[in-house]
Amino acid sequence: MKKVCTINKFTGIETRSAIGTVDHPMANMDRAPTIGELCSVFLKDGVALAVTACRKALHEAHLQPSDITHVVSTTCTNSANPGNGIGGTGEEESVYDLLGWEHKMIPDTEHDLGFDVDPLGWKVILSPRVPKIAASRCSIPQLPRPHLKSPSLPTSYSSPADFDWALHPGGATILTGVEKAMHIQPEHMRASYDTYMKHGKFIERNHL
Asked: What is the C-alpha to C-alpha distance for residues 145 and 150, in angstroms, rounded to an integer?
């Protein structure tokens, strides 16, 4: 534990979010909790947290629950992730336009990142190569240039520094590595840095 605390001092994370305190029963068992016990806590506390967050979002957006047609939720550590009917009814004008997208498979990386189910929970596979791999795929030559040259964009938007970027904050070295590879400044990824510093590695805490 001392080693973990020492490492935490150099992560750049200022605060972390948690649904419980050190007094939570799950944190004081004389054995590791089973995946079933973890799931029960997730369905009880995770759902309550999601409901609270959604109500807060509705309040801030000045919307009523009846204004929402679809709910998409994602989790990294539980199978309770309903996302039926993704796509919307098409009756209203879209809020955002998808100008382009790209999906790539990176060769020889299947052993660098994984999430294996185990009777006692989930076992993460995360090699030290991940930050370098992420940065290498975001370097200027690797960027999907057609998307930056979309006819829907103003002519002044032609380089990575002309945009704000949202990057999964899987770690400080991933953020700084991608930043250098794309020749941008921290302000271009300020939302990702803010999330990382206030909440830590942002994996399963997603609710759209």
From this structure: 9
Q: What is the pLDDT of residues 130-173, one digit of tens each?
A: 999 999 888 876 665 555 566 677 778 878 898 899 888 888 89
Domain chopping of the chain, boundaries: 31-77, 127-141+162-201
Segment 119-125 long-range contacts (CB within 8 Å, at least 24 positions apart): 119/34, 119/35, 120/32, 120/33, 120/34, 120/35, 121/32, 121/33, 121/34, 121/35, 121/38, 122/35, 122/77
Q: Is 0.85 topped by the overall pTM?
A: no
The listed CATH number (3.40.50.2000, 3.10.20.30, 3.40.47.10, 3.40.190.10) that belongs to domain 127-141+162-201: 3.40.47.10
**Higher confidence at residue 21 or residue 99?**
21
